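Field reference: "sequence" (input) and "structure" (output). Example, Cobyrinic acid ac-diamide synthase:
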Amino acid sequence: MRIGVTNQKGGAGKTTTTLNVAGALNQHGHDVLVIDLDPQGHATEGLGFEDFYDDPDRDSLFDVLPDIDRMDDLGRLVVEHQEVDVVPSHERMINAEDELANVMKREERLDMLLNESDADQRWDYILVDCPPNLGVLTDNAIVATGNALIPAQAKSTSIRAIELLFKQLRSIESAFGEVDEIALVANEVGVDGEAEEMMAWFKDVFEDKEDCEVFEIRKRVALQRAWNAGVSIFEHNESCDMEEVYLDVAEHLEGYADD
């Protein structure tokens, strides 16, 4: 199963969601690939590969995606982590959208790369951490996966961002085929009235969608400490009650994949 973790609003918790859902899937015994499609490289850093981010001699998606002759080169980009396999981002990715601007099938390059490299035979789950925008790279992630896992803050400012994301997903759907919103993960949920109102709004909007669920992650310092240590919360050396929620997300994805 391929999953794009996407929300163009900054601070929504995309990388935290990606890494900990990937860690939960690993806990369930799955082989997982995390693709860091964000030019800022937060997932790359959060998995301890910051040295790869600015290595001038290392190939990245910046080199591969625009080159139609390198659509079977995924294996050259993958590095091993103790929990998951990773395609790190690179500082050159900041120019990737410009490089893709004039190539044929520019929104389909990641899909072509995964298909030509037989990625679905190697990994049970592929999670793509998207940039905080609705540009060509995010389009590539959604076209390649057909599934959107949406992180969001439990704040009223999330409403406009999610509405815009829905419009973009429907636009991609009309051109490239069905796109499913499979879950929303509300991050750093507080105990204030705004958070309660937003959780109600999330459930009204998302639980009407077939097989879509809403999950609630409370703010926990342990999650940041795990990110600093280069691992998910499951490999971090302190316990956290949010582990159970991420395991619930993983179980939901398993059920979705089985359907």
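The domain at 2-258 is CATH 3.40.50.300 (Rossmann fold).
The first strand starts at residue 2 and ends at 5.
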